């Protein structure tokens, strides 16, 4: 008798926002065979090294398998009933004594949409506070804020196919080659097929992405608004504007142009300020002016700034001026960092948003969501954004925090402040898949969550594509889905509305809310009406689809590759907005004590704080330990040598790593990767060094510009 050959399960990679489809098959020896899903539109079977190594990251070594409670300073294993009672009882006592704003959730772009939805429903509609923020605040919130200002809602106009159709691709603040490799390969194939396509990379570092570039503009850190205001001004002077589009479909051009012309009307002055060659700047401006099908894709180098939202809008302004939006092969494109940063945004994952792209500060939206949920209350104002949330914990106004699927002790700026906050917090609950992390060390309650390959749900990638993550492994130990843990606590708090039989029921409620009182409103753009009423078998079979999603007359799902083809935006008047963006320097300038600019980011083969990718030996081959990348002349100047340990310090903290050269860094800057945590031999958390200044609109921290000094260790 032959055993049946097991079928591979189709799922989605849990790392970056490209959102590649994978197939996974458990083998008899316990290994997992991973391959790219040839039918998935985001990657057509291709995987980068991180995705290909997924099978090496699913072992149970180091996993958190049982709930645990801290008693007399020591964690002991507990039953689920004990742990859930402690969480619900602790939250209830604090809410009763200090009000709903005294408790908070801090969640993650690693959560599935269903987890995110239940967390937001519990916090905003039942506890009645908007103190729920997410680590997406650290990577995407400036793009969200920029989209909302320009389009009226957080809407990504284009899709990956536009990269195939473009005649010019501008990559701003994005090391696409390392951080979004499959998208980079797509651009590389475009360049190979059509060598005349122009690739421009705008980045202070000469990264691996520059290998594809016809033109690299190594701008001075923090000068993007000068560069794009200069472009706006140049385009306007050159008459490269879509007058009919501007007249019929936009507002606010004159103030935006006036703001751009104050400092940026002279390209020579812009080149001087951005520290780029005038000829290179003019080549970029001239190329942009002459090319209709141009995509400007941006990522953390734009977003992670105290002027991040203005940087986003300065880019969008250039596309609105030229009408290059909503059509094939053109548009501004936000490259999402995490696999489900977009899904979190759909359900109101940020402290200043409501579910289904509604706004907390809009009374009608609050009423719509509360009516749909039949919930007892509704948060009346935006909650605390990540940096302010941990400040409020340290100050004592927030007394309980539930951290889910993220490691703020490593990933937040001014990570020493996060430690002070967690030490002071009356109740720290952590849901995670790993037993020992820097954040777990401060937990009063640890809750074991399902990980990738064990849980079911959906994620949304950078191009609004909803894909299924599917379980192919049994739940280890007593681990549970995050949405279920949240629902269990909600019921213990005495709340109705959390009796979901499975992830499909959560998804259905999310889809129905998107369509509730939607027709004829500006919210119609975010609409999942075609996905309402999915029963478990259809949810399980759901194919990748881009929202908005409707059903055609034949009952088939109809997704939407692009938005704004009809030139209707989500502001009340249906028009897009130019936003006046006055350039401003990074918040903290260098000085004689801290003369270098610290830039942080990812390396090719690691992900976030390495709790998963750190398990795959072959991923460590690329970069074995943290490092301080600096220019050889700066190393000479500051008395440090390649291969030796050095201390990088700021007024917020210090860390130690080995000096290296060769990362394409310009003089005056250093680069340190974000991944290494405090669980290594030396505490290599760069978050302890990063300044906690945030963008005033988005609340996104300035990870790309902290004044530091480097000295021998
Ligand atoms: Fe995963 Fe991103 Fe690599 Fe695709 S490009 S396999 S989504 S890490």
Automatic annotation (TrEMBL):
It comes from Massilia frigida. Belongs to the prokaryotic molybdopterin-containing oxidoreductase family. NasA/NapA/NarB subfamily. Its cofactor is Mo-bis(molybdopterin guanine dinucleotide); [4Fe-4S] cluster. Residues 6-62 form the 4Fe-4S Mo/W bis-MGD-type domain. Keywords: 4Fe-4S, Iron, Iron-sulfur, Metal-binding, Molybdenum, Nitrate assimilation, Oxidoreductase. The chain holds residues 2 to 714 of 902 of the full protein. Transmembrane segments: none annotated. This is Molybdopterin-dependent oxidoreductase. Coiled coil: none annotated. The lineage of its organism: Bacteria, Pseudomonadati, Pseudomonadota, Betaproteobacteria, Burkholderiales.
